[in-house]
Amino acid sequence: MEFLKLVRKRSFLSELTYTALNIGLAVAVLLVVLYTESVWFAIVLVMLSKWRVFAVRPRFWWANVRSNMVDFIVSVSIALHMYTVNATSLNESSKLLLLAGLLLGYIGWLLFIKPRSKRVYVALQAGLATFLGMGALFTVSFNWPVSAVVIGAWAIAYSSARHILSSYDDEMHTLFLGLAWGVFASEVSWLSYHWAIAYPLPIVPHLMVPQVAIIMTLVSFLAYKTYDSFYHHAKIRMNDILMPLLFTLSVLIVLLLIFNRVGTAI
Predict the structure, then answer these.
(1) CA separation, residue 42 to residues 39, 46, 47, 84, 220 (Å)
(2) Residue 3: pLDDT band by 50, 70, 90 thresholds?
(3) pLDDT computed for residue 230 by the predictor
(4) 191-202 exposure pattern, b = at least 16 Cβ within 10 A, e = fewer
(5) Which of 195, 188, 199, 213 is closest to 77 using CA atoms?
(6) What strands, in cross-sheet order, belong to the sheet with 208-210?
(7) What are residue 124's phi and psi, to 5 degrees?
(8) With contact defined as beta carbons under 8 Å apart, do 236 and 226 qualify?
(9) Can you tell me the distance from the alpha carbon of 142 to that of 39, in angstroms, rounded to the nearest whole number?
(10) How far apart are CA 105 and CA 18, in angstroms?
(11) Distance between CA atoms of residues 191 and 209, nearest Å
């Protein structure tokens, strides 16, 4: 009984320490953005928080980097969005409200979404990495060379695709499908770079959501459901993908034919 009590006590202390460290990281990222007014220091802080990736033998570094890329993309994207909010001309109360929302979202990611290993959570992790990553990339890359944007989009798409594919017992196709999805995202990003459209948020018109982030997230979701159907049934069943297909097409039609008229070039 004493041993069980000791194990429970250590488990509770470990969970408490884990929670405190993650909340501390999220708060530290926000404070760095607020007081330095530079996103680079926040990105460095995020990179330092990943020290365990390299706390192993060098031959395991690349595998650890790949497995942590989705978390890195989400963390850096949130830091970039914090910086964007802080740099807007909003009044201080609105800024603090939005920054608090991003802070709570980041804490939720670190504590409740990132640690989950069920496939539905893995898909959610990949989807958030795609949406936040593409959104952050096209928010800050308006004066970047197109090659840098294409490479960034490829890295986000490849990492997200590999993340969800690794939850299946199909290692043979993981690399090929991940690379193929990265190439697809690169082509979409190249087109979006030359035809950049963003939609202002209803409550905060100063902040905009790039169209490409919405499109890539929707198409990625459809691709995931298609692969899931093929994996389980050795063919793509229409019943499995009909609703995701109709939803994706409906949103794309609304975005491309209606909202483009009110969209704003980035």
Answers:
(1) 5, 6, 9, 13, 28
(2) very low
(3) 92
(4) ebbeebbbbeee
(5) 213
(6) 208-210, 197-200, 264-265
(7) -65, -40
(8) yes
(9) 16
(10) 17
(11) 17
How much is the average pLDDT of 68-81? 96
Question: If you search the block for the tokens 């404070």, which residue do you land on?
Answer: 31
Can you read off the two tokens belonging to residue 261?
A: 């008229």
CA neighbours within 13 Å on the CB side: how many for 200?
10
Of 184, 165, 157, nearest to 230 by C-alpha is 165
Model confidence over 210-228: pLDDT tens digits?
Answer: 999 999 999 999 999 999 9
Range with lowest mean pLDDT among 9-13, 89-93, 126-130? 9-13
The CA-based diameter of the chain, rounded to the nearest angstrom, is: 69
Which parts of 37-68 fold into alpha helices (H)?
Answer: 39-48, 61-67
Torsion of CA 136, 204, 88, 97, to 10 degrees: -90
Q: What is the mean pLDDT of the chain?
A: 88
Mean pLDDT of 167-187: 90
At 29, list the tokens.
């990222």
In one-letter notation, the amino acid at residue 95 is: K
SS3 state of residue 68: coil
Taking 80 as the threshold, does the pLDDT of residue 4 lie above it?
no
Q: How far apart are CA 246 and CA 250, in angstroms?
A: 6
